[in-house]
């Protein structure tokens, strides 16, 4: 068996030890005689898996006691509608900072439920940077301010937490959750699909501050009403049990790695291998402003389409896969989430050097 170095943007690479443990436990979880997939979500076995996952996640995030952890379904895209339904309350509008494809989608979807204002945009810069905070035209009466902490397609990431005063900050962290320590208390709500940095698709994490619960519009489906789910420990309906189990194994793996500060140091080292090379090699172009470069998704371009195709082919022959850039931007994108080992990034950097020397 050979495992490729998998640079997929998502669903993405998971720690090999987690996959091995899941394989070992596939037919019989801890002597229960069942796979986790086959367990009642209300039985004591699954309840213990859920409780452990929540405890480990709270520990990793240093979660303040006035925040709830919800394991829901619907994905990041679902949350774009579910969050305005839950947080609008008696307000009229929300503010969105548009930094690329994902924030644009959130803006568009929110418009179905609220007056959604684009309070800043980097569109004129082709979404290659984060608009500076002093250019944002925030409305003090907005229900919340939406940001995307890491634009998975554009490779643009916040390296600071915006101050939004008394207006709650909502962050889509689908592609950088658990990649670095965060001060949860600076946010009203954080959401993330699991499949980039946390587990398989099918589970969506929501961290929400207590005082924001109970504002859902009457049209909100019960299964997506944060207060109802919080009151029922994410068990108002059947939660995505297997995805929660795998995410729980990932949380334990993260603790073994030394937690989020250790993860950030590791991720910085990995990203530097690529960015230093991109900066030193005119053959490659990195479109993103240096101060806003993502530690998770590294997009870059080669001089021509033909060279890009040849690059991808050569990478595949060397066991490096899913490097093709998103169809909307082209080029190459290397996603180097927590579970991508530094050896994989080093192998890519070595290949990039070799390729540029041959073709540059
Ligand atoms: C992948 C992604 C999403 C979409 O998640 P789905 O699970 O496909 O709905 C949303 N936001 C960001 C930043 C993403 O990377």
UniProtKB/TrEMBL annotation:
* Pfam families per the UniProt record, alphabetical: Aminotran_5
> Where is the Aminotransferase class V domain positioned along the sequence?
5-348
Q: How is the cofactor bound?
A: Binds 1 pyridoxal phosphate per subunit.
Q: Provide the residue positions that the database annotates as binding L-glutamate.
A: 42
Q: Which residues form the signal peptide?
A: none
Database matches in InterPro entries: Aminotrans_V_dom (IPR000192), Aminotrans_V_PyrdxlP_BS (IPR020578), Pser_aminoTfrase (IPR022278), PyrdxlP-dep_Trfase (IPR015424), PyrdxlP-dep_Trfase_major (IPR015421), PyrdxlP-dep_Trfase_small (IPR015422)
User: What positions belong to coiled-coil segments?
Assistant: none
Q: Which UniProt keywords apply?
A: Amino-acid biosynthesis, Aminotransferase, Cytoplasm, Pyridoxal phosphate, Pyridoxine biosynthesis, Serine biosynthesis, Transferase
E.C. number, please?
Answer: 2.6.1.52
Q: Which organism is it from?
A: Piscinibacter gummiphilus
Q: Which family does it belong to?
A: Belongs to the class-V pyridoxal-phosphate-dependent aminotransferase family. SerC subfamily.
Q: In which pathway does it act?
A: Cofactor biosynthesis; pyridoxine 5'-phosphate biosynthesis; pyridoxine 5'-phosphate from D-erythrose 4-phosphate: step 3/5; Amino-acid biosynthesis; L-serine biosynthesis; L-serine from 3-phospho-D-glycerate: step 2/3
List the Gene3D superfamilies.
Aspartate Aminotransferase, domain 1, Type I PLP-dependent aspartate aminotransferase-like (Major domain)
> What terms describe the molecular function in GO for this protein?
O-phospho-L-serine:2-oxoglutarate aminotransferase activity
Q: Could you tell me where this protein is found in the cell?
A: Cytoplasm
The name this protein goes by in its record: Phosphoserine aminotransferase
Q: What does this protein do?
A: Catalyzes the reversible conversion of 3-phosphohydroxypyruvate to phosphoserine and of 3-hydroxy-2-oxo-4-phosphonooxybutanoate to phosphohydroxythreonine.
């Amino acid at each position: 068996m050979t495992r490729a170095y998998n640079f997929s943007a998502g669903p993405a690479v998971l720690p090999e030890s987690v996959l091995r443990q899941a394989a070992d436990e596939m037919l019989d979880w801890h002597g229960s005689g069942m796979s986790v997939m086959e367990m009642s979500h209300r039985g004591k076995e699954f309840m213990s898996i859920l409780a452990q996952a929540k405890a480990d996640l709270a520990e990793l995030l240093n979660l303040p006691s006035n925040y709830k952890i919800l394991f829901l379904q619907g994905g990041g895209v679902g949350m774009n509608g579910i969050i305005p339904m839950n947080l609008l309350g008696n307000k009229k509008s929300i503010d969105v900072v548009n930094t690329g494809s994902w924030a644009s989608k959130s803006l568009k979807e929110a418009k179905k439920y609220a007056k959604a204002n684009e309070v800043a945009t980097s569109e004129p810069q082709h979404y290659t940077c984060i608009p500076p905070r002093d250019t944002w035209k925030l409305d003090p009466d907005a229900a919340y301010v939406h940001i995307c902490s890491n634009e998975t397609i554009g490779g643009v990431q916040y390296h600071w937490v915006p101050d939004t005063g008394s207006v709650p900050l909502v962050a889509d962290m689908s592609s950088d959750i658990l990649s670095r320590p965060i001060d949860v208390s600076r946010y009203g709500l954080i959401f993330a699909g699991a499949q980039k940095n946390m587990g398989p698709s099918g589970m969506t994490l929501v961290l929400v501050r207590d005082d924001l619960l109970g504002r859902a519009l009457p049209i909100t489906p019960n299964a997506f009403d944060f207060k109802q789910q919080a009151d029922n420990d994410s068990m108002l309906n059947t939660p995505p049990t297997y995805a929660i189990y795998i995410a729980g194994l990932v949380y334990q793996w993260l603790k073994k790695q030394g937690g989020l500060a250790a993860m950030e140091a590791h991720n910085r080292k990995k990203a530097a291998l690529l960015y230093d090379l991109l900066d030193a090699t005119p053959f490659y172009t990195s479109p993103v402003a240096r101060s806003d470069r993502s530690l998770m998704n590294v997009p870059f371009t080669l001089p021509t389409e033909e060279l890009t195709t040849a690059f991808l082919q050569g990478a595949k022959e060397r066991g490096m896969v899913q490097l093709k850039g998103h169809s909307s931007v082209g080029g190459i994108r290397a996603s180097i989430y927590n579970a991508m080992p530094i050896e994989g990034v080093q192998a890519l950097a070595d290949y990039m050097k070799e390729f540029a020397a041959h073709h540059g």
